[in-house]
Amino acid sequence: xxxxxxxxxxxxxxxxxxxxxxxxxxxxxxxxxxxxxxxxxxxxxxxxxxxxxxxxxxxxxxxxxxxxxxxxxxxxxxxxxxxxxxxxxxxxxxxxxxxxxxxxxxxxxxxxxxxxxxxxxxxxxxxxxxxxxxxxxxxxxxxxxxxxxxxxxxxxxxxxxxxxxxxxxxxxxxxxxxxxxxxxxxxxxxxxxxxxxxxxxxxxxxxxxxxxxxxxxxxxxxxxxxxxxxxxxxxxxxxxxxxxxxxxxxxxxxxxxxxxxxxxxxxxxxxxxxxxxxxxxxxxxxxxxxxxxxxxxxxxxxxxxxxxxxxxxxxxxxxxxxxxxxxxxxxxxxxxxxxxxxxxxxxxxxxxxxxxxxxxxxxxxxxxxxxxxxxxxxxxxxxxxxxxxxxxxxxxxxxxxxxxxxxxxxxxxxxxxxxxxxxxxxxxxxxxxxxxxxxxxxxxxxxxxxxxxxxxxxxxxxxxxxxxxxxxxxxxxxxxxxxxxxxxxxxxxxxxxxxxxxxxxxxxxxxxxxxxxxxxxxxxxxxxxxxxxxxxxxxxxxxxxxxxxxxxxxxxxxxxxxxxxxxxxxxxxxxxxxxxxxxxxxxxxxxxxxxxxxxxxxxxxxxxxxxxxxxxxxxxxxxxxxxxxxxxxxxxxxxxxxxxxxx
Length: 647
Fold this sequence. Notes:
Layout: E1 2-9, H1 21-27, E2 34-40, E3 43-49, E4 63-64, E5 70-78, H2 81-88, H3 97-108, E6 118-126, E7 131-136, E8 145-148, E9 152-156, H4 159-163, H5 174-181, E10 202-206, E11 212-215, H6 230-247, E12 255-258, H7 263-278, E13 283-289, H8 299-307, E14 311-317, H9 327-334, H10 343-355, E15 360-362, H11 367-371, H12 376-383, H13 387-398, H14 403-418, H15 424-437, H16 452-458, H17 462-469, H18 478-487, H19 491-500, E16 506-508, H20 514-521, E17 529-530, E18 533-534, H21 536-541, H22 548-551, H23 560-570, H24 572-578, H25 591-607, H26 616-635
Parallel strand pairs: 12-13, 12-15, 13-14, 15-16
Antiparallel strand pairs: 1-3, 1-9, 2-3, 4-5, 5-6, 6-7, 7-10, 8-9, 10-11, 17-18
């Protein structure tokens, strides 16, 4: 993992010698082990490095091509080094991943990004073309932000580092804020109007002619995975997830993995354990335990995997953690408001991993989105009139009558299978009902904590309205469900990446492997859901690898029970201390809604209703508002800077 920043003047003047010094100071947390700076002519680059892979041990900062024509700064881990070296006629003799990216650029130009597998963000300054190429991996795990004007461009892998570069403006991105307050997260924008992210699976070329955006990989491209039988599907899936886990074990330090007891994290652990054993190493595993809220606890499913041996198992009791735990610290690390009430749990796990000597930490996140639960198959069956089969699949998923589980699955079936079938006239009716219930705001702002006057001011923004409406589930089959779920992901891996940088952890996600994603996107419905078994292909593929108790597990726990309980049972005094901070957000937030949410939580705490689901939405809304308010207070006055930008 690394951090980088750069500045290029289009009029040929040289940057001040210390122009990137504040950015480098901000990036130090992302790369405490080594670093360097470079400047020549109109360009200046800086990079900080965290040692993780064997090749990174020789990395120090900006890297020049052999002919001196190009310079690169990168935050990258490549998973296809051998293939790249073969294509580029290079020997894999331990050069940093950035060197391979630079060689790929000199061979393929901006198209080089399409040849790379792994997590990456990089910037290449091409002295001959007098332009900068920025690129980001397909799921946006590694971030990069940029600014462009007629006079200069600047870029960084941290938005606060970018803001610190002289001449870069700070103005609130009101459309992005509206998206955030109404429940969305846009992976292509930031909370600063002039500082967008490079979108996942895109390159951006910055030159005097202006920024040029180009997509190099498309989530929506037509794909079709057809194999003769279940055994071959299982073997193909197993081959890809195994390759993905193996690629992510490349490390110069001890490797760890999260172990929750779920299908995804346990699959990663059970695949990684023998691979490390072949190298004479033991896998460190980290599990979160919950005593006070047993509905969040999964230790009974962790136990079979631990019992197989070969692990250095670490447990963390995290009952005290609430949405307020380490909130200010996490907000500083993020650099922007975030949507994640349980983020402190991952932060604690990252810190425990580093204390154990681990720098590379795998997880099982995003398997649900990549492999897919297959609930879109219910939609397919209903559209085809196969009601009996749809009912059989649904009842099979419940595993018999279990009131809480059946209610939860019924809610999922409605939102993911029935609601997408709603015709447009019914959707219009729902919008009309929302207008009647809350006539003071646009329909897209109903039920949200956004200030009505702020919402009306943005109602003419057709792009914003279209973006918000696109969040509604309208898929009609399992593949569309798969694409929909994946499209929502990129903001979360990036957030985890930024938080992991604090203790010096490279967090790696085996399920976000391009080869695995492309394979799963083309799967037929029956490989996702059949005979009541969701994620059938993975369950078949992991037979003989996973403990049976996990492979055939139907239930799924959530930390929300513990997080919510901790807030209502223990952290309400802390919430009372923070509530005055929301006043600063009054131009954007409906404080009446926020006060009502707070009152509901106070009542829930007084009644001891610590794990009642109806309190979760008010908790989430209030968490969004509070996080934004604290960020806004820290960002003032720069975030309101509307003065002309000097050249």
